[in-house]
C-alpha cells in the first residue's frame, strides 16, 4: 500500500522535527533572493534592449533619413510579431529613441541605468540630466537602494 506523505506530515507537527523551522526559513530566504536576482536580471536586459532599439531607430533616422512615421510602422509590426509583449507601443518606441538620444553611452546604460526599472527611467523624464548623474539626487538614492 502506498505511503501517504501528507498524512505523515499532518501527524507530526513541524515544530516537532528538529531543525525544520530553520531549514524552512533558509529555503524561503534562498527562494526570495533568487526571485529578486531574476527580476533584476530581467529588468536589466529589458532596459538594455529598449536602449538598443532606441539607438538603432535613431541611427537609421540619422544615417538613412528615415522619418518619424517609421516609428509608427515599427510599432505596428513589432506588436503584430510579439502580441504577448506590451513594450512596443508607438509611445514606448518614441521613449526608447529619446532614451538612447539622452544617454548615448551604452556602458552608462549597462552599468547604471539598467539597475533602474524602465518605468523609473521614464519617470526621470529621460533627458533629465544627459549623462550627468550628479543632476538628480533622487536618482542617486534610487540607484543606491537597488
Walk me through what this model shows:
This protein is mostly helical and 146 residues long. It has one domain. The chain has 7 helices and no strands. α2 crosses α4. It is elongated and about 75 Å long. About 6% of the residues have low confidence.
Q: Could you give the count of β-strands?
A: 0
Provide mean pLDDT, rounded: 82
The overall number of domains is 1
Strand content: under 5%
Specify the overall morphology.
Answer: elongated
SSE ordering: HHHHHHH
Topology:
Elements: H1 5-11, H2 20-64, H3 69-81, H4 90-102, H5 106-111, H6 118-123, H7 137-145
Structural features:
146 residues; mainly alpha
Sum this structure up briefly.
The protein has 146 residues and is an all-alpha fold. It contains seven helices and no strands. The protein starts with a helix and ends with a helix.
Amino acid at each position: 500500500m502506498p505511503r501517504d506523505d501528507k498524512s505523515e506530515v499532518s501527524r507530526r507537527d513541524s515544530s516537532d522535527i528538529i531543525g525544520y523551522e530553520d531549514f524552512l526559513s533558509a529555503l524561503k530566504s534562498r527562494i526570495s533572493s533568487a526571485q529578486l536576482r531574476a527580476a533584476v536580471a530581467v529588468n536589466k536586459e529589458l532596459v538594455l534592449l529598449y536602449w538598443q532599439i532606441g539607438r538603432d531607430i535613431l541611427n537609421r533616422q540619422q544615417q538613412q533619413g528615415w522619418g518619424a512615421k517609421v516609428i509608427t510602422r515599427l510599432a505596428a509590426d513589432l506588436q503584430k510579431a510579439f502580441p504577448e509583449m506590451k513594450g512596443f507601443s508607438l509611445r514606448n518606441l518614441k521613449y526608447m529613441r529619446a532614451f538612447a538620444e539622452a544617454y548615448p553611452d551604452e556602458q552608462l546604460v549597462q552599468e547604471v541605468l539598467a539597475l533602474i526599472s524602465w518605468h523609473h527611467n521614464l519617470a526621470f523624464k529621460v533627458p533629465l540630466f544627459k549623462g550627468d548623474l550628479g543632476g538628480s539626487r533622487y536618482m542617486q538614492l534610487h540607484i543606491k537602494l537597488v
